[in-house]
Specification:
Blueprint (H helix, E strand, L loop, with lengths): L10 H25 L2 H8 L3 H7 L3 H21 L7 H18 L1 H12 L6 H24 L8 H17 L1 H7 L2 H4 L3 H16 L4
Helix pairs in contact: 1-2, 1-4, 1-6, 4-7, 5-8, 5-11, 6-8
C-alpha cells in the first residue's frame, strides 16, 4: 500500500517506510533539502528508486513527513516549562533538555536548521501556527516571573532565543566544536557544555544577582 493509502501497512511496508525515513534523515541533514536527491535516499535505504517511490511519491513528500514528525518532538521541551515551578530551575531544566536533544538528535537538529536557513518553506505555517503561540505562552510566564521579582530582568523572547542558539550549536556546528576544544573534551563536549550553560544562566537569571 502506498504511503497515502488507507489500509494498514504490512510489516514489510512499515519496515521499508521506516528505512526510507531513517536514510532520508541522514541525507537531508548532510546535504540540505536542495542538495539531497531521491537516488541518494534510495541508496542509503538499500532500496531501488521505484521501490522508494512506491512509498513516497517525491523527495518533498519524504521531507514533509520527517518535518511533521520532528516538530512535536522539538516543541515538547518547551511545553514542559512549568509556571508553578521555581523560575530559575525551570529555565535551567529547559536548557538541559534542549542540550540533551542536541546530543541525542543531531541529525534532526541539522534538518530543522537547514529548513529554517532556506526560509522555512515547509515549516512557515507551522512555525506561526504552533510554535509562536507556545512561545508567546511561555514568554508570558517568564515575564510574570520577572514582574514578581523571581527572575532577574530579562527579555523573555531573547532569553529563549539564546537558549536555542547555545544548545543547538552543539549539534549544528558539531565539527567546529570538536575541532577547537581541548583534546580531552573534544570526544564528548556535552558534560562541560552542560556545566557551562548551567553556570551562565544561573548567574544571569538569579534575582538580585
Amino acid at each position: 500500500m502506498a504511503a497515502n493509502g488507507t489500509r494498514p501497512r504490512t510489516r514489510i511496508q512499515q519496515k521499508n517506510s521506516a528505512a526510507i525515513l531513517e536514510a532520508a534523515l541522514d541525507v537531508f541533514s548532510q546535504n540540505g533539502f536542495r542538495g539531497a536527491t531521491v537516488d541518494q535516499i534510495a541508496r542509503a535505504a538499500g532500496l531501488s528508486k521505484p521501490n522508494l517511490l512506491y512509498y513516497f511519491p517525491s523527495k518533498e513528500a519524504i521531507h514533509q513527513t520527517l518535518l511533521a514528525g520532528l516538530l512535536d518532538t522539538w516543541l515538547a521541551p518547551l511545553r514542559r516549562l512549568d509556571p508553578a515551578g521555581d523560575p530559575v530551575e525551570e529555565i535551567l531544566a529547559y536548557a538541559r533538555r534542549k542540550l540533551e536533544m542536541s546530543r541525542e538528535m543531531p541529525r534532526e537538529s541539522r534538518l530543522f536548521a537547514n529548513e529554517v536557513l532556506q526560509g522555512a518553506p515547509s515549516l512557515e505555517t507551522v512555525l506561526k501556527g504552533e510554535l509562536k503561540p507556545l512561545v508567546d505562552e511561555k514568554a508570558a510566564v517568564i515575564a510574570g516571573w520577572v514582574d514578581a521579582g523571581r527572575l532577574a530582568p530579562v527579555h523573555p523572547y531573547h532569553l529563549l532565543f539564546s537558549i536555542w542558539a547555545l544548545t543547538q550549536h552543539y549539534a549544528d556546528f558539531d565539527v567546529q566544536v570538536r575541532a577547537v576544544l581541548p583534546e580531552n573534551e573534544a570526544g564528548d563536549p556535552f558534560p562541560e557544555a552542560a556545566r557551562a550553560i548551567d553556570t551562565l544562566f544561573r548567574k544571569t537569571l538569579a534575582p538580585g544577582g
